[in-house]
Structures
1.
Amino acid sequence: MTGLLGDYAGEVISAYIVSLALIGGLVWLSALQARRARKQLKRAESRHG
Amino acid sequence: MSLWEYANPKKFTETVTPLIPWVLGLAAICLVASLIWGVFFTPEDYRQGATVKIIYLHVPSALMAINAWFMMLVASLIWLVRRHHVSALAAKAAAPVGMVMVLIAIATGAIWGKPMWGTYWAWDPRLTSFLILFLFYLGYMALWAAVDDADTAADLTSVLCIVGSVFAVLSRYAVLFWNQGLHQGASLSLDAEEHVADVFYYPLLVSIAGFVLLFLGLVLLRTRSEIALRRAAALDRRAEARAAATTGEPA
């Protein structure tokens, strides 16, 4: 991999790691929010129907 | 059938729920394909070497950072004019996604800038306008969190969104307005003579499609969550009011 990227392997790999980590974090937080919202709505509906 | 039908939260939720996994799945396919294509199957640039491979992250994220704000602007205007709650919630849902796009653009730009310009950061017009756009995203999200009444929060954030649009436009056109910066001109243009070479251009287009689909999928998912949270809060408030009415206490 580093051979493929020559002298700039560190820069390219770190750019990909940072970006994919940020995207992964965003997707994970969005999925968490979706799960929390679904649970909260279900609880409210069952309580107050 | 009118587009305004989707301003109904129930109709919106029913419509987008089956779409979300497909949109996010397609986004993942486009992103994985374009990044593998870009890293392993494109040549190095004759001047920038392998750092050109950062383009598949930097350009699409910068594009989405600006366009996310414009999407928020349209949604905010719809809220201000027609008072559709779904549009206000869609703008709120898009803000964290847009902010992450700005972060990716700034981080990859800095990493790319160090070997090419000799510095991670310069007070260049485009970089500076992007930093201001990032601060606007933070301010927009903070304002939503700071105001308790949802409608007032939607009103105030909509006004902030209109003001911030000036910087979104500046971020887009800064390289054309001022020539003294370090940042190069636009990598993409409708004019075929001006954009990057085809060998970089095609994987870049796939990557852009991936980022657009990722943005769309996440905004739909987050808007659906915001609608569910708003409905749960409304049900709780209604139940509290009913309980207060039965006991004779003020709600």
Note: Chain A has one domain: 2-48.
2.
Amino acid sequence: MGSWLRSVFRHEDWLVIPLGALVLLACTWMVQPPIEPSQEGKPKPVNLLKGKIAKLESWSSNPLESVMLDKPADGKKKPYQHFPALLFTWSILGILLVPIALFKGMRAREYWVGYAVLSALATLAFVMANQQVVKHFNLEYVLWALLLGLIISNTIGVPRLIRPMLIGDTIIKLGLILLGAEVLFGKLLALGVPGILTSWIVTPVVLITTYWFGQRVLKMESPSLNMVISADMSVCGVSAAIATGAACRAKREEISYAIGISLLFTSLMMVIQPNFVLWSGMDKNVGAAWIGGTIDSTGAVAAAGEILGKDAGLIATTVKVIQNVLIGVIAFAVAGYWSIRFGDQPGGNRIGIGEVWKRFPKFVLGFLAASLAFSFLLPALEVSSDAIETITKDSVAPLRSWLFCLAFVALGLETNFWELGKYLKEGKPLLLYLLGQSWSMILSLIMAYIMFGVLYADKIKAFLAK
Amino acid sequence: MLGLLWVWVLPQIAKNPAVKKHIEFLEDRNINTGAMFYTEVQEHR
């Protein structure tokens, strides 16, 4: 079976694309036409997978609260409510990853033992991330997944039986194809022209200039580390670091470093930035657009925006959503640029289209195809926006989160702490992040002021009044 | 040490009135602060 898969798909990228497509098709198929009336009285489509993919609850002092239903209808917490969902999720993902294991030539024992360890650690990472204080400072599960893996690999070591299952890079690609379905181009129009200009002009300008600065002025040793830091700082934090890191084949230590630094500064900025807006007396709509354009992580933007008020929270989150959509274009552009500029063969000679194609990470095509299918094909097939929303939010997003969590446990288990320590000792990556973030804050503030404070101020107020 | 941090230190921080108030403020609005992507921002219950 494994040799057949290798002869048919040749490269793992070609295998993860149909696997991702299969998941997306299954998620779509599990949504039935509207029969259930919603609270607003409008019938909503029924997603048979809703609640079946485990999403752990936040907890304050007892970690077991994370597997209880937080707000059940009868007002009483039911113990271990999420266990069936956990069992279902572990089983689904265990079956889903079998073709990858066969492709990689794993034995059944290696796969199932390795998978059991990864899923147990991934569950623990989710429990850690859902502690109320941790969660409210946006210290996401990927950080804890990495940390758990790092601690184990650099203390007790990884048993030989589990090592073949350390395929974090491949699991990330599958997760990214699912993420593609969440990148809906229709979201671009949510705030009209000011939203598009604030996100889609400033973000690429900051990304390109920061990368250029890192290469030419700071003379960063690793272009891929430069790109991952520039992308996570300018686009949308962890998800951008994962997508661009995979697109430019960054080392796992580079992705880990970029994620760590981004989460650290996000947790600071989500407190400082909204309070600065309030203290300075800045127009709240301008401040919200500024927050949406500069704070890396989406959850942190929602929290920071909400401090300014309900309307400001809506503006900040919407600007960030528009920026989120950029991730598809940026991952594709980075993959293309890297295929032309950096290949396996040294030398600056012009390369042919065949060589570019050979170097191009093919899974990015799956990522883009998923985005285009959910943005344009499903609406053309008269799948309602409510149906697309429940597919992406209640099925695809939780599955993708689990895949990323499993992948980052595996990456942590593969990472040597001393390799990661090299980046911590060197000041250039941190300096790049700080200068890039400062540059982003200046440009975003100027654009937010022009768009939300001057040119479109009335239109935004009218939009909010609706 | 990690266990101690999670089952004792962090719960103590969560009890701090200012932190507790901020957590309740966001939870009342159903905002998932730990969201990585926009599809996770509003928690569905």
Note: The interface with chain A takes residues 2, 6-7, 10-11, 13-15, 19, 22-23, 25-27, 29, 31-41, 44-45 of chain B (CB under 8 Å).
